[in-house]
Amino acid sequence: MTLFILVLLVIIVLLGVKNIRMQCITRPVFSFFKRVLPPLSDTEKEAMEAGDVWWEAELFRGKPNWDTLHSYGRPQLTEEEKAFIDEQVMTALTMIDDFNIVQERKDLPPELWDYFKKEGFFALIIPKEYGGRAFSAYANSTIVSKLASRSVSAAVSVMVPNSLGPGELLTHYGTKEQRDHWLPKLASGDAVPCFALTGPEAGSDAGAIPDTGIVCRGEFQGEEVLGLKLNWDKRYITLAPVATVLGLAFQMRDPDGLLGDREEIGITCALIPTEHPGVEIGNRHNPLNMGFMNGTTRGEDVFIPLDWIIGGPQYAGRGWRMLVECLSAGRGISLPALATASGHVTTKTTTAYSYVRHQFGLSIGQFEGVQEALARIIANTYQLEAARRLTTTGIDLKVKPSVVTAIAKYHMTEMGRDVLNDAMDIQSGKGIQLGPKNYLGHGYMATPISITVEGANILTRSLMIFGQGATRCHPYVLAEMEAAAMEDSSEALERFDNLLLGHMGYGARNALSSLWSALTASRFNSAPVSGETKQYYKDMTRLSAALAFVTDLAMLVMGGDLKRKEMLSARLGDVLSELYLGSATLKLFEDNGRQQEDLPTVHYVMQLRLQRAAKALYGALRNFPNRPLAYAMRALVFPLGNHFNGPDDKLTIAVCQSMLRPGPARDRLTHLCPDFEGDKGGIAEVEHAFIAQYKAKHLYKTLRNAQKEGKLDRKQANDALYAQAYELKIITEAERDILLEADRLRKIAIAIDEFETL
């Protein structure tokens, strides 16, 4: 007891007496911190400072406030947005023939281009005072998803002007003159925009773009003015072949000091009419055979006035931050919308196809091997819809959640790929034979485009999610880094001392919380709800504390080396991502009114999220370079081992059974893939067959019972079977006609296209 009291007194003195604390703890720790501090490039610093933190910060700090999550509200469409979707979007869907777009035209038909321009599809984010529609991020996402349910090419053509591009940059940063001149033209479709960022030498490392703008004097409209001489070579630029106005990112330099004493001004964005002398719109690319416009643009010694810089000369050198902030919003809308559409399409068609496609005398949806893949499709689609809603909610709250949108971009596009892979496995020949009836093939072909653009997925996972999240979301690290960068050393030490005590308490709390939760199976953690989802909140709180604890030690021990340990940081980023996706799932369940029909799917998704989060955390500890510390952390985080096992077979079967029938649960999970007259893509055919066969299920049961009793022959064609059953008065004439019609629709649904020649 005496020894314990002495140790306690020493700790109290060390921490409580400021002068002693400063000399014995703060100063050595500060010196160590400055030594291991990860060096940040200018572009990394700008990316770190751009955007906002949001719900991900709660998850990262070890004690999420679940009431905050529920307070964000349910995303809803306005009456104007609903009317646009019910009228203009549905009309556009009837005009889409994706086989014609991709295989024959390699372009949208002129009437569809005209309709998009006339009805304001390219003006979804432009303010109303300029003729735009000023729709919410949720509405924007919904519109793109519904278009993508019938044509990726049409959806991409609409989403690009409403994502990263001149419209968004002008709205946020343009001068009054620029907004007044360009936004009405963009809103009416008189101007078609593209934005050129990527080039042969700068893809993921956009900060290294070699394209230049040199400050000089030149002639413009008959007068000598101060401007820029531009040289650029860009590729992969969507809408470039048809663009009338070009947004351009380049490195701005002032070697002659015409603007001041800064020679290297930095990345700058300008807006240039494509008819301007020297602007070259090059040839088209062929992005996996899709029909949307994508190509090159080049320019050599093109002179523009300084006023063409977006935001005017005062925004010279601020282009990278502008791009990062705008990209963070666009990344959370456009590509996740395409991925969610893939989920809705595959769930709608694959549940229907699994019901109407028979093998060995049974619907293939009754085979457990098929059910395993089908359950993944359904669960991933629920997750995609949940993440789409939560992410657009954040954007509509006027935050710019760069980490959240990076999570959405990476994980949702990967899930989009997964659902299409599983759907192709189940629908097999129906999915691989291209033709007007094939509703999977073009989406399957286009999936790698989403994986690649707006930051390659490997980069997003291994560098961006954790790299930004660890620093931006941590309650102390960013402030400590700022203190370390201060020029006044005494003031820096004073500020660091104030932060250090809080940081130490934060770390100790997370370590103890992680251990206590692991030993008690999270039983004493709080949850904002009761019922079957309560435990998931508790388990996510446990993993949140564990992530915060492990991250703290990883940053302390590895410092700047951590960002070079990409596999390790990617795993820690995966933990944060899985917690975010799980949050979205629980919120969707609450927003939908806790529908009991959705519970099997919610259980499947949440058990999968927890399993993957724990696996990623376990993997990070297994590969942590400091082995003694790794063993100590594992003893605190997983003292009894990792028991997050994921969904079992019984739950997998229950998920499938809940969706192999028409009803509200299936409608909620497929509403972005609507039914309509004039559908040219085969989706309506398989849906009509599914509805017809489901309505006749009692008749099929009657026939099977008669076959078991020996009244009907087992091996005969359906037409003959129905005729025999009618003759034996097992079914009535009206019932025979119902069966014949259902069988006619089934044959149409499972049919594939044939061609005389290719």
Automatic annotation (TrEMBL):
Domain Acyl-CoA dehydrogenase C-terminal bacterial-type residues, every copy: 471-755
Cofactor requirements of the protein: FAD
Pathway per the UniProt entry: Lipid metabolism; fatty acid beta-oxidation
EC number: 1.3.8.7, 1.3.8.8
Acyl-CoA dehydrogenase/oxidase N-terminal domain span: 82-190
InterPro entries found in the cross-reference section: Acyl-CoA_dehydrogenase, Acyl-CoA_Oxase/DH_mid-dom, Acyl-CoA_Oxase/DH_mid-dom_sf, AcylCo_DH-like_C, AcylCo_DH/oxidase_C, AcylCoA_DH/ox_N, AcylCoA_DH/ox_N_sf, AcylCoA_DH/oxidase_NM_dom_sf
Domain Acyl-CoA dehydrogenase/oxidase C-terminal residue range list: 317-457
The Acyl-CoA oxidase/dehydrogenase middle domain, residue ranges: 194-293
Alphabetic keyword roster: FAD, Fatty acid metabolism, Flavoprotein, Lipid metabolism, Oxidoreductase
Reaction equation(s) it catalyzes: a long-chain 2,3-saturated fatty acyl-CoA + oxidized [electron-transfer flavoprotein] + H(+) = a long-chain (2E)-enoyl-CoA + reduced [electron-transfer flavoprotein]; a medium-chain 2,3-saturated fatty acyl-CoA + oxidized [electron-transfer flavoprotein] + H(+) = a medium-chain (2E)-enoyl-CoA + reduced [electron-transfer flavoprotein]
GO cellular component, one term: cytoplasm
Family statement drawn from the similarity comment of this UniProt entry: Belongs to the acyl-CoA dehydrogenase family.
Name of the protein described by the UniProt record: Acyl-coenzyme A dehydrogenase
